[in-house]
Structure formats: structure tokens, C-alpha cells
């Protein structure tokens, strides 16, 4: 049994809210007035506190900076018509944070602490949840080693934080993706299934090369022979081939997306054929050439569904059917958005009100 948390709150002297243009919010640039912070010291979590958002003192010798001992999560809250914050599947984010923590030799965070910290922070900055059509509050929990020691060994001290960023409507124009067959995001036995900092740092350069070639994003393939489709690096990928929804089966080199899981649950609920299995690059390219790939999309918290317009492979661009014709992706997008905002029933109990 854990007793309820005592969370100290230090309020800002003056809110920055009046300065924010909620009709023009670029992703990840504006942060709310407050942040949550907690310390792991001598084997237990404590010091949960809410303080004004701002810079934090960090030792220059912290392993988080030198060795990437740092993990994060991403989720969203929406404004309900009755003024509550509706948070989408936060317990699943916590579960995943703790899976990442174990892989990175970091302490797990108990559910009570996570939920109490999150709800107190959201309550403190409730006015920052945008109510504009399509807008949301992006929630970024993260944890990093706070030791002052540059030897490589399991750390002893850690910091857990949550910051909040109001996000405008995400108009996802269809994306052009390139199947990456040289660089690797994650390998068997590696950290790809963890939301661990280093996975992203290493993917920026290959992504930039693809952008220089006119693509928006990569589809990563397996690190061994680049023969199998993995995921997109911030999104999982899915295809409707003939009439079946196909997505790569989870493995230790693929991040288990909560959007991915939500899409699969809805598809099965609707009686659609669903296959989670290996998809080879060859199978996909053949199906593209035969016109059997009716839909392709990325699934992740930022966009929910990002339609894929073009898939590039070894210099050849394969164009997909127009977005208006994509029955499944459009339907599942609408349904998920409606569940998240509480305008449709939530049959799976995904939304937590705070
Ligand atoms: C976060 C993330 C996703 C998407 O996960 P969601 O829980 O749906 O947001 C997919 N792939 C990677 C590598 C990610 O980091």
C-alpha cells in the first residue's frame, strides 16, 4: 500500500496564457505554466512537486547526457464539453514507460504516483487544454538518470518529469515515405521496443537524407538484412492489402504503439480481417505493383492516422490510391478522434477523465 502523495505546488507569479495564440500553435514549441518533477533517491520515489515551467539544474556529469540513459512517453488530453480533461489510455503509457525503464536499467514508477502526478499537473494547468476544433494538450512524461558520475554502471538517482504542450489541430497532409534499406533504427536484442532517447538521436541523420530526397519520413526495415518492414520511427505502419489490414508483428525492434493497438482493436471489433505478421519488402512492393495495396498509413499519437501517399523503394516511387477512397483509415481515424473527445461511446474504457 502506498499512501496518497503529498504534492507541493509552487504556482507561477504570472501566467503566460494570455500571450499564447491558440489559433496558431506549432507542435512542441509552447509549454504550459507548470511542470511536474519527482526524484528517485535511495531506492524510492519522492519529492513530487509542481513548479513553474523552466530550466532545470542538471549535473554536467549526468549519464543521461553522456550515455542516453533517458526514456520518454507521449500522450494527449482533450477538452470535454463538460470542462474535464480526457486523457487517452494513460495507463498504457505508464505500462510502456515501465517497460522502457526496465530495459534501460531505470526504476519503475508506481501507478498511483504517475496518475496522481499527472492529474495534479493537469488540474493546475487545466486552462491550457485547447478547446479549439481538433486541438489537444500533448503530454510528455520522461525520466532520466540524475547521477553525478561518468562511469558506466546502473545509476542510483533519477528524475521523473511531465511537461505539457498545447497542440493545434494536426492537419496531416498525406506523407511520402521511403523504405530505408541501408541505415538501421533498431536491431534484435537492442532497445527498439523501448521509448529510449538514443533510438531517436540515431534516426535523425537517415531521416534528413530522405528529406533531402523529397520524402517526409522513413519506413525502417529489419537491421539484419533489410528484408522486412518494421515501422516509421514515430509511428507504426499499417497496410490494407486486398481487404486485409496487415501490420508488422511486434518484436523487440518495434515500438508497441498505443495507436497501433487501438486501431487493431477497432478493426477486429468491426469484424475486419487483421494480420499481425512479418511483411517482407518484396511482398509489399509486389502488392504495390499489382495495385493490391488499397491503403497505407502511419499510426501514432501525434497524427493518430497519417495517410501515406507515396512509398519510395530503391529509387522507384509507388503511388497509392487517393485518400478519399481509403475507407478503413478514414473510418478508424474518425472513430478514434470521436472516442478521444467523448463525442462517441468508449467501448474499451480508453479515456480517463481528470
Ligand atoms: C511513440 C512511437 C510510436 C507510436 O506510439 P503511440 O503510442 O501510438 O504514440 C511508434 N514508433 C515509435 C518508434 C515511437 O517512438
TrEMBL record:
**Could you tell me which Pfam families the record lists for this protein?**
Aminotran_4
- Source species: Chryseosolibacter histidini
CDD domains, sorted? BCAT_beta_family (cd01557)
- Gene Ontology terms describing biological process: amino acid biosynthetic process; branched-chain amino acid biosynthetic process
Signal peptide per UniProt: none
On whether ATP-binding is a keyword of this UniProt record, the answer is: no
Q: Keywords, A to Z?
A: Amino-acid biosynthesis, Aminotransferase, Branched-chain amino acid biosynthesis, Pyridoxal phosphate, Transferase
Q: What family name appears in the similarity comment? A: Belongs to the class-IV pyridoxal-phosphate-dependent aminotransferase family.
**Name by which UniProt lists this protein:** branched-chain-amino-acid transaminase
Q: Please give the function described in this protein's UniProt entry.
A: Acts on leucine, isoleucine and valine.
Q: Which cofactor does it need?
A: pyridoxal 5'-phosphate
Output the PANTHER family linked to this UniProt entry: BRANCHED-CHAIN-AMINO-ACID AMINOTRANSFERASE, SUBGROUP IIII AMINOTRANSFERASE
Amino acid at each position: 500500500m502506498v499512501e496518497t502523495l503529498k504534492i507541493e505546488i509552487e504556482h507561477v507569479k504570472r501566467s503566460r496564457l494570455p500571450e499564447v495564440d491558440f489559433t496558431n500553435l506549432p507542435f512542441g514549441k509552447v509549454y504550459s505554466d507548470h511542470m511536474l518533477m519527482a526524484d528517485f533517491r535511495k531506492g524510492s520515489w519522492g519529492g513530487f512537486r509542481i513548479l513553474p515551467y523552466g530550466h532545470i539544474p542538471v549535473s554536467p556529469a549526468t549519464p543521461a547526457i553522456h550515455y542516453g540513459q533517458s526514456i520518454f512517453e507521449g500522450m494527449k488530453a482533450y477538452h470535454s464539453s463538460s470542462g474535464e480533461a480526457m486523457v487517452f489510455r494513460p495507463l498504457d503509457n505508464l505500462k510502456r514507460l515501465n517497460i522502457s525503464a526496465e530495459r534501460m536499467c531505470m526504476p519503475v514508477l508506481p501507478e498511483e504516483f504517475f496518475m496522481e502526478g499527472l492529474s495534479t499537473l493537469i488540474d493546475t494547468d487545466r486552462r491550457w487544454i485547447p478547446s479549439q476544433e481538433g486541438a489537444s494538450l500533448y503530454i510528455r512524461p520522461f525520466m532520466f538518470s540524475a547521477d553525478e558520475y561518468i562511469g558506466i554502471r546502473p545509476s542510483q538517482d533519477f528524475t521523473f518529469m511531465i511537461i505539457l504542450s498545447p497542440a493545434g489541430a494536426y492537419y496531416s497532409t498525406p506523407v511520402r515515405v521511403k523504405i530505408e534499406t541501408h541505415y538501421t533504427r533498431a536491431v534484435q536484442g537492442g532497445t527498439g521496443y523501448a521509448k529510449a532517447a538514443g533510438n531517436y538521436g540515431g534516426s535523425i541523420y537517415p531521416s534528413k537524407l530522405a528529406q533531402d530526397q523529397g520524402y517526409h519520413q522513413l519506413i525502417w526495415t529489419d537491421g539484419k538484412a533489410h528484408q522486412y518492414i518494421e515501422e516509421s520511427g514515430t509511428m507504426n505502419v499499417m497496410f490494407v492489402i486486398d481487404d486485409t489490414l496487415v501490420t508488422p508483428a511486434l518484436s523487440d525492434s518495434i515500438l508497441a504503439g498505443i495507436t497501433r493497438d487501438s486501431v487493431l482493436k477497432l478493426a477486429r471489433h468491426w469484424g475486419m480481417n487483421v494480420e499481425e505478421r512479418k511483411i517482407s519488402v518484396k511482398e509489399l512492393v509486389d502488392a504495390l505493383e499489382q495495385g493490391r495495396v488499397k491503403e497505407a498509413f502511419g499510426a501514432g499519437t501525434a497524427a493518430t492516422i497519417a495517410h501515406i501517399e507515396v512509398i519510395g523503394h530503391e529509387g522507384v516511387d509507388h503511388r497509392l490510391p487517393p485518400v478519399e477512397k481509403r475507407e478503413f483509415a478514414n473510418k478508424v481515424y474518425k472513430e478514434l478522434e470521436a472516442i478521444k473527445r467523448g463525442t462517441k461511446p468508449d467501448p474499451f474504457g480508453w479515456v480517463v477523465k481528470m
